[in-house]
Amino acid sequence: MIAADSLPSLVEDIRLWARELGFADAGVAHLDLGEDLAHLHHWLERGDHGGMDYMARDPAQRADPRLLRPGTLSVISLRMDYRAGSLEAARDQLADGNAAYIARYALGRDYHRTMRGRLLKLGKRLDAAIGEHGYRVLTDSAPALEKALARNARLGWIGKNTLLLNRQAGSLFFLGEIYTDLMLPPSASEAVADLCGSCSACLDICPTQAFTAPYRLDARRCISYLTIEHHGAIPEELRPLIGNRIFGCDDCQLVCPWNRYARLSEEPDFAPRHSLDSATLIGLFSWTEDQWLAKTEGMALRRAGYPRWLRNIAVALGNAPHSAATVSALQSRADFDDEFVREHVAWALERQTCRLG
Question: Is residue 294 situated within a structural domain?
Fold first, then answer.
């Protein structure tokens, strides 16, 4: 058993080892998540989770790490930066109606794989230092209130856009956790101050007005939800508002003043693959399923599946400036064997025709 008086120095060692493994920071969270559970219940009662039924399963388990992993006494929360290019380049891509915009986090390797590997290495480093102990690593891979835990670990505050914000790093980072049976002292007793102040830039910029109030997101209107999680048809009234965003959305991050401090990642896994940070809609729409499977191997883009990939690009092509090339690209998929792809292609062709008139 490790001596209690050596635990504070162990926490500092953990932060050092975490940085050596590519994490930007680490902290120890206290496990009081009662208010967060109440917030989750209200969110679910409003139906703001949309079709994400898994969010409604075992909410108590999300709010009590000891239910998720029996024996848990502490949670180590860690963040890893992922910004691979300039925010100005991202804005330029978003402003080009013929370009395909993919959320910056999804341009490289699936972060779940990278983070999980590093978390396991950190767990083994702990084993080597103190002897084998019980722990479990999480990377958005089990029911957990990871933003609340990161806030409790003093890694930042939860902003009006519902993301964790850090004064020195903005919000362009991933989170991961280690649930451990070590009784580690929590990070600083005082919470990180909410520095959003009177700023409402993230609320105002949202193309679909998915923020119904500060700190409250209706996933049913969120472009990230619509292009990744949502199955079936995208509501017609929201399609024109999606613009050229084909997988996820970064608007509330790109406009956030704190992201001027977002740090460039040194992690090669997060570097953009296949020039996806400068791809065109027509170019990506031409990918066959075999090409898509080959090019998205090991990437978060796989979550959408090929038909939804085409569905999303069809919507973006419908919003693109009129051109014969755009119409031709859409017509090439008019008879695709997925009904939702066909329906969205037809909608896009009508939009292109109306724009020509």
Answer: yes
Evaluate whether 177 touches 78 at the Cβ level (below 8 Å). yes
Classify 177 as helix, strand or coil: strand
Measure Cα distances from 129 to 35, 77, 123 in Å: 35, 19, 10
Q: How far apart are CA 165 and CA 159, in angstroms?
A: 6
Number of Cβ within 10 Å of residue 293's Cβ equals 12
Neighbouring C-beta atoms of residue 279, cutoff 10 Å: 19
Q: Tell me what the mean pLDDT of segment 319-333 comes to.
A: 97
Question: What are the start-end ranges of the H helices in 220-323?
Answer: 223-224, 239-242, 251-254, 281-285, 289-295, 306-319
Element counts in the chain: helices (H) and strands (E)? 16, 10
Q: Give the β-pairing of 135-138 and 74-81.
A: unpaired
Same domain, 114 and 70: yes
Question: What is the tens place of the pLDDT at every residue in 234-268?
Answer: 999 999 999 999 999 999 999 999 999 999 999 99
**Amino acid (one-letter) located at 320:** A
Provide the pLDDT for residue 111.
96
- Tokens 């020195």 belong to residue: 168
The domain total for the chain is: 2
Is 62 a domain residue?
A: yes
Is 191 inside any structural domain? no
32 — phi, psi (to 5°)?
A: -85, 105
Position 9 scores a pLDDT of 87
Which of 321, 240, 326 has the alpha carbon at shortest distance from 285? Answer: 326
Do 29 and 65 lie in a common domain?
A: yes
Chain center to CA of 191: 24
The upper half-sphere exposure of residue 290, i.e. CA atoms within 13 Å in the direction of its Cβ, equals 0
Shared-domain flag, residues 172 and 274: no
For the full predicted model, state whether its pTM sits above 0.85: yes
Spatial distance between the Cα atoms of 39 and 295, rounded to a whole number of angstroms: 39
| Active-site residue list | 140
Task: Measure the CA–CA gap between 288 and 291, rounded to whole angstroms.
Answer: 5
pLDDT of residue 3: 59
